[in-house]
Write a sequence for this structure.
């Protein structure tokens, strides 16, 4: 496997790890549920794509790559759906976003 | 080097376990239990146990979380009281942990090929599976054929748990207790989960069938397949509502599946006797012994898969019906 | 290097005792069931740790001539144990739901109080 592909795969894996770290820090530090979900979704999308892309480059053209593409498609389809379902459930349970509370009636920004 | 990754996962596991015990919100405890199951499944994979990792992920992180949440919906979600006899319990637990940790210094080194666990019968199984059974997955060969009697007992344990829960909670399909037809049942008025769910359910079922029938060639088998098929049908029940899920797979079919699984398993065993061998001897089932083993393992894995599906789905419907 | 293997066994001991503490010291029946689940998971971890062989792979023949395999026997045992564990947990959850319906609470001290009356 050429050096260029290997370096590219390691760059992708490192960037994926950094994305997951950013998502994790965001999920801890953000003020309320919706902003936390927004931060955690970085893990699902960018993190998954970069890490799986890096692993695909390591695997080369083989059956494992096709399986990884299928896994990536599955993740890209289900993670946003679960975030959506979580946000709908939170709204239904009555958790209001913080941004709503900060707008006093009668004040125009 | 991958063992370092395992160390990291184990540390996360300890932190999660302590958080599970310390939190007083039971919903949080159930979610953390799902995370702990997934961490354990990842660790199993690092320790070369592919079949066990698949089972732990499907059953522990998947079905177990659903069952805990269904039961939680029927009881209270907050742990009210404080612990009793805390100092005594903590002392006993700490002393026992220290004794266990002291005992671990005598254990064989992790991975030592000369450890007693690897030098007794295990090499015999690894050498003789190609001769007697000739399937690539040694775990399925041992589970299905060499130690088939244990798996028969396990299928009966699953069956007993199923009828136990049905006795306790009822099946929810007594006359007059079926859910009424309403316009917005399940998640039908939420567009995105409904569309994506309906898109995914056929593929999940297909994957369940793949895992069932490829248990001999790779990680898989009846238990994992049963859990995956159950997950697909639970997803359908969540999205479309319980009434439609019961219309799709009625309770009497589920009872039939529950009973048919151990029946198939026992029938294969008795067929061995009738055709001239011992109980659960698959060699006389086909023209030559190896094909007989293949046929026998295929049939009992089907029995295991439909038992697990029937039992887990019956338990889910029993919990769901109790809240009505 | 030996410390890495020992760490697995220490985590097993800590997990085992954490689950056991939840079963013994917590009064909520649901928490006891979760602690029991944790206890079982720790035992699974012990067995699978013991099945690992240096330089081995999963015990699936893949055509390589002389591959080293990890021990398949503990894996078979734990496969059975996981399924039996979820069965008993499901039965235990059914009992907890029935107790809640009959007594109105799943805290052990309240249940014993109602029983005493």
């Amino acid at each position: 496997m050429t050096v260029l592909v290997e370096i590219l795969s390691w760059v992708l894996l490192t960037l994926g790890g950094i994305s997951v770290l950013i998502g994790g820090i965001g999920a801890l530090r953000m003020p309320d549920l919706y902003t936390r979900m927004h931060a955690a979704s970085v893990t699902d999308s960018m993190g998954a794509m970069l890490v799986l892309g890096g692993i695909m480059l390591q695997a080369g053209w083989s059956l494992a790559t096709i399986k990884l593409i299928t896994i990536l498609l599955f993740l890209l389809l289900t993670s946003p759906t679960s975030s959506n379902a979580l946000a709908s459930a939170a709204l239904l349970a009555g958790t209001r976003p913080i941004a709503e509370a900060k707008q006093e009636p009668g004040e125009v920004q | 080097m991958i063992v370092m990754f395992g160390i990291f996962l184990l540390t996360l596991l300890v932190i999660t376990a302590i958080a599970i015990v310390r939190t007083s919100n039971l919903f949080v405890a159930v979610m953390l239990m799902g995370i702990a199951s997934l961490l354990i499944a990842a660790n199993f994979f690092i320790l070369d146990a592919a079949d066990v990792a698949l089972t732990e992920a499907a059953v522990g992180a998947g079905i177990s979380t659903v069952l805990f949440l269904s039961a939680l919906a029927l009881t209270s979600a907050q742990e009210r009281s404080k612990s009793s006899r805390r100092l005594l319990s903590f002392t006993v637990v700490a002393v026992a942990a220290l004794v266990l940790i002291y005992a671990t210094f005598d254990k064989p080194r992790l991975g030592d090929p000369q450890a007693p666990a690897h030098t007794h019968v295990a090499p015999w199984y690894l050498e003789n599976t190609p001769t007697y059974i000739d399937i690539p997955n040694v775990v399925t060969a041992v589970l299905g054929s060499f130690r088939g009697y244990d798996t028969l007992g396990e299928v009966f344990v699953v069956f007993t748990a199923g009828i136990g829960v049905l006795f306790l909670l009822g099946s929810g399909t007594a006359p007059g207790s079926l859910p009424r037809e309403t316009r917005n049942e399940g998640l039908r008025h939420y567009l995105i989960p409904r569309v994506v769910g309906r898109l995914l359910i056929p593929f999940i079922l297909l994957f369940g069938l793949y895992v069932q029938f490829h248990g001999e060639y790779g990680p898989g088998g009846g238990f994992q397949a049963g859990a995956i098929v159950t997950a697909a049908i639970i997803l359908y029940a969540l999205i479309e509502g319980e009434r439609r899920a019961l219309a799709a797979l009625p309770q009497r079919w589920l009872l039939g599946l529950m009973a048919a699984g151990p029946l198939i398993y026992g029938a294969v065993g008795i067929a061995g006797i009738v055709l001239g061998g011992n109980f659960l001897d698959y060699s006389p089932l086909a023209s030559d012994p190896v094909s007989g083993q293949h046929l026998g393992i295929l049939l009992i894995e089907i029995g295991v898969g439909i038992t697990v599906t029937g039992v887990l789905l019956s338990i889910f419907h029993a919990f769901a019906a109790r809240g009505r | 290097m030996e410390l890495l293997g020992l760490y697995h066994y220490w985590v097993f001991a800590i997990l085992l005792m954490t689950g056991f503490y939840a079963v013994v010291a917590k009064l909520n029946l649901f928490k006891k069931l979760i602690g029991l689940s944790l206890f079982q998971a720790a035992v699974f971890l012990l067995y699978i740790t013991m099945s690992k062989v240096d330089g081995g792979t999963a015990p699936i023949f893949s055509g390589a001539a002389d591959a080293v395999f990890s021990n398949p026997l503990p894996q078979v045992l734990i496969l059975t144990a996981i399924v039996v564990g979820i069965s008993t947990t499901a039965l235990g959850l059914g009992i907890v739901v029935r107790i809640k319906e009959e007594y109105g609470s799943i805290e052990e001290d309240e249940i014993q109080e109602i029983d005493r009356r």
